[in-house]
């Protein structure tokens, strides 16, 4: 290599170095001159997507250990700020909830105008979003409405137990049966119909039709099914036939007053079974896995249940109010394995947001890593251990509404999951019933230490290896 060639290379290297340095410095400041959160250097086009292969929330948690609890990532072309600690999340929610309460809308969800009618995607400032959330609170998930549907929940649980009974003694994957039962519980509560069949693949099909690979064609298919259901119900009502007293009846009453259009009813039904069925089912599977991995916890939960339910044939929903230990087990499982570990991405709709001293400019996606927040050592002692007692020992009781921000499996603030009142009834009922009706054993030769608790996260955080167990009829 000649001397001039060496100089040329050095010059190129120096030039490239200074451009990168300049870009890095520029990247650290917002247009208002405020410091932006630090983060790994993005590549052209893909940004930091190459940093996130594998279980995304684990990868993001690892990066936050290097860059801090308020971190910048570029996801493709989207500037994103990730919040990973209890204190940073508290600051974001207490100071800026309203400014961060919009959503980033992926193109697929614009299909059929879904995003414009959806409680998930409309910005919180939009009057339609306010109306939808209002209707959910005052017409759907009301104490009276939920109480009226209690027989449905109890029936769906009985059907699940009836599915397991003839299979007692067999090694089973329980995921499919639980998923079917939970989808039916949600669909029957909403429109008095089972959408899944035990032993068939309908539930899986529907899940696939769901959020994962949604295209305009699939949207149209789901929407035309839902439209038919509404048409049939309207005809039923016009014929003055007996009411169903499900959520659809309540929604059609609102529609009759002109406060809600048919397309919004469809969007709400769609969201309910997509958002509800999966996350409830996977939560049940996680709790069962933790109970089997921790036999002393299972024994304690069983003893509590025996005290409350005794030799009654079945658990009644009101019994679950007297099962504080089981409630703590459910919370502890959701703390360690939230079905939505990154919640749903929020979006900054105004400038002026500052978290941890860093600027979060308007248009930035804000991701809360609930997985990290709920294992933050500043908020939780021995955060990776499964210890339900911690929820019983807290000075102020913790519910699912995320007030304290350190426990937020359903989010918190304006965007809190509206399904909480339904879930807090369903989860304890299903789990208490499963434990009451059966002893659960691991397959022959397997010990709790052998269980693989690895996570897999596509749209919901699940056990990577589905739980296999043996139900034994309890005396
Ligand atoms: C165990 C079950 C469930 C879990 C873990 C769960 C979790 C969540 C989470 C983490 C969010 C996002 C919160 C945020 O962005 O800050 C959310 C939003 C939402 N969930 Fe749930 N959810 C569950 C069940 C349900 C059910 C049963 C329904 C309806 C029947 C439902 C409907 C919704 C809707 C409509 C939103 C969007 C709310 C908004 O953006 O304003 N979810 N849920």
Which short descriptors sum up this protein?
single chain; 475 residues; alpha+beta; Cytochrome p450; five-stranded mixed β-sheet; three-stranded antiparallel β-sheet; 16 helices; 9% strand; globular; binds protoporphyrin IX containing FE; Cytochrome P450; monooxygenase
Give the number of domains. 1
**Biggest beta sheet attributes:** 5 strands, mixed
CATH architecture: Orthogonal Bundle
Strand content: 5-15%
CATH class, anyone? Mainly Alpha
Determine the structural class based on helices, strands and strand pairing. alpha+beta
Distance between the termini: 86 Å
Radius of gyration of CA atoms, rounded to a whole number: 25 Å
Spatial shape: globular
Helical amount among residues, as a percent range?
A: 40-55%
The strand count comes to 12
CATH-defined superfamily? Cytochrome P450
Q: How many distinct helices?
A: 16
Low-confidence stretches: 14-22
Spatial ordering of strands, largest sheet: 1-2-8-5-3
- Write the H/E string, N to C: HHEEHEHHHEHHHHHHHEEEEHHHEEEE
The name CATH uses for the topology is: Cytochrome p450
Ligand inventory reads: protoporphyrin IX containing FE
The whole-number mean of residue pLDDT values reads 90
């Amino acid at each position: 290599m000649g001397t001039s060639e060496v100089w040329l290379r050095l010059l190129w290297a120096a030039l490239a170095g200074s451009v990168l340095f300049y870009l890095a410095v520029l990247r650290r400041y917002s247009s208002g001159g405020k410091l932006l959160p630090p983060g790994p250097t993005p590549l052209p086009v893909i940004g930091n997507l190459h940093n996130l292969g594998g279980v995304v929330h684990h990868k993001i948690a690892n990066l936050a250990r290097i860059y801090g609890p308020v971190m910048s990532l570029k996801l493709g072309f989207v500037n994103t700020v990730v919040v990973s600690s209890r204190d940073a999340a508290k600051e974001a929610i207490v100071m800026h909830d309203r400014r961060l309460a919009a959503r980033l809308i992926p193109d697929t969800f614009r299909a059929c105008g879904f995003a414009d009618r959806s409680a998930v995607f409309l910005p919180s400032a939009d009057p339609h979003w306010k109306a939808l959330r209002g209707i959910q609170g005052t017409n759907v998930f009301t104490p009276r409405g939920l109480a009226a549907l209690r027989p449905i929940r109890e029936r769906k649980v009985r059907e699940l137990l009836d599915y397991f009974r003839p299979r007692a003694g067999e090694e089973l994957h329980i995921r499919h049966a639980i998923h079917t039962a939970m989808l039916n519980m949600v669909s029957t509560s909403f429109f008095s119909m089972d959408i899944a069949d035990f032993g068939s693949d309908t539930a899986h099909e529907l899940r696939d039709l769901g959020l994962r690979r949604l295209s305009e064609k699939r949207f149209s298919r789901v929407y035309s099914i839902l439209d038919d259901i509404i048409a049939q119900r309207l005809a039923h009502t016009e014929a003055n036939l007996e009411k169903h007293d499900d959520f659809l009846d309540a929604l059609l009453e609102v529609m009759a007053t002109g406060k809600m259009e048919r397309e919004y009813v469809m969007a709400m039904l769609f969201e309910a079974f997509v958002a509800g069925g999966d996350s409830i089912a996977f939560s049940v599977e996680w709790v069962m896995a933790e109970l089997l991995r921790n036999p002393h916890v299972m024994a304690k939960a069983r003893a509590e249940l025996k005290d409350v339910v005794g030799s009654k044939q079945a658990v009644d929903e009101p019994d679950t109010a007297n099962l504080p230990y089981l409630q703590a087990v459910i919370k502890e499982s959701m703390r360690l394995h939230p079905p939505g570990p990154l919640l749903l991405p929020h979006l900054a709709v105004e400038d002026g947001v500052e978290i941890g001293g860093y600027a979060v400019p308007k248009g930035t996606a804000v991701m809360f890593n609930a997985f990290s927040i709920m294992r933050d050592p500043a908020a939780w002692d021995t955060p990776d251990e499964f210890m339900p007692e911690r929820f019983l020992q807290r000075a102020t009781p913790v519910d699912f509404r995320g007030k304290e921000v350190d426990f937020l499996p359903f989010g918190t603030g304006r965007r809190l999951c509206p399904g909480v009142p339904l879930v807090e009834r369903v989860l304890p009922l299903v789990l208490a019933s499963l434990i009451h009706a059966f002893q659960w054993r691991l397959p022959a030769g397997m010990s709790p230490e052998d269980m693989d608790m690895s996570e897999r996260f596509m749209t919901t955080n699940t056990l990577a290896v589905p739980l296999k167990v043996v139900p034994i009829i309890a005396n």
